[in-house]
Amino acid sequence: MSNELSGIGTGRRPCGGGRRHGGRGGGLLEPALLAVLSSQPSHGYDLRRAVEELSGGLVCIDPGGMYRVLRRLEEEGFVASTWSEGDHGPQRRRYELTDEGRSLLRQWAEHLRQRERVFRSVIEIVERSLGPVAGKPAQSTPEISSKQGDS
């Protein structure tokens, strides 16, 4: 990994390097939260729902883990929060991205682009090693349709 990506201003690595502070969502929770917050400040529940929608359900969030990540991001200066009155209930914490958080998100974007290149390379190697059937529908589909034609 290049030096630019191995440290994020505070000596942090974008994904899992070094310290672990609960609930990183397989390395995607932090950048997903930052991405959602980059468009507008949000409350925790709305963040959770937005991240799950953004990821097509691939990033499933443990609420406790999400709040631990948000708290850590706030302690490190990447996110700020304020209390706001709830429409129909108690106060809720509203989170927003700081300038430092935007910088961290840009670094995450570069890190994720590099990971995407690695994933594509690995996929190509796997597909080549599997031969011509890689990436094609399972062979059972034609057999099922031919059996239906025989009935």
Account of the protein in words:
Helices cover 54% and strands 13% of the residues. It is α+β, with helices and mostly antiparallel strands. The protein has a single domain (3-132), classed as Winged helix-like DNA-binding domain superfamily/Winged helix DNA-binding domain (Arc Repressor Mutant, subunit A). The chain has a three-stranded antiparallel beta sheet. Helix 2 (29-39) crosses helix 3 (44-54). The longest helix has 32 residues, at 99-130. It is elongated. Mean pLDDT is 77; it is low at 1-10, 12-25 and 138-151.
Distance between the termini: 58 Å
Mean pLDDT: 77
Identify low-pLDDT runs.
Answer: 1-10, 12-25, 138-151
| CATH topology call | Arc Repressor Mutant, subunit A
Question: What is the level 1 CATH name?
Answer: Mainly Alpha
Outline: elongated
What proportion of the residues form beta strands (DSSP E)? 5-15%
- Structural class, please? alpha+beta
Q: In DSSP terms, counting alpha (H) and pi (I) runs of 4 or more, how many helices?
A: 6
Which SSEs are present, and which pair or pack?
Layout: H1 3-6, H2 29-39, E1 42-43, H3 44-54, H4 63-75, E2 79-86, E3 89-97, H5 99-130, H6 140-150
Antiparallel strand pairs: 1-3, 2-3
Helix pairs in contact: 2-3, 2-5
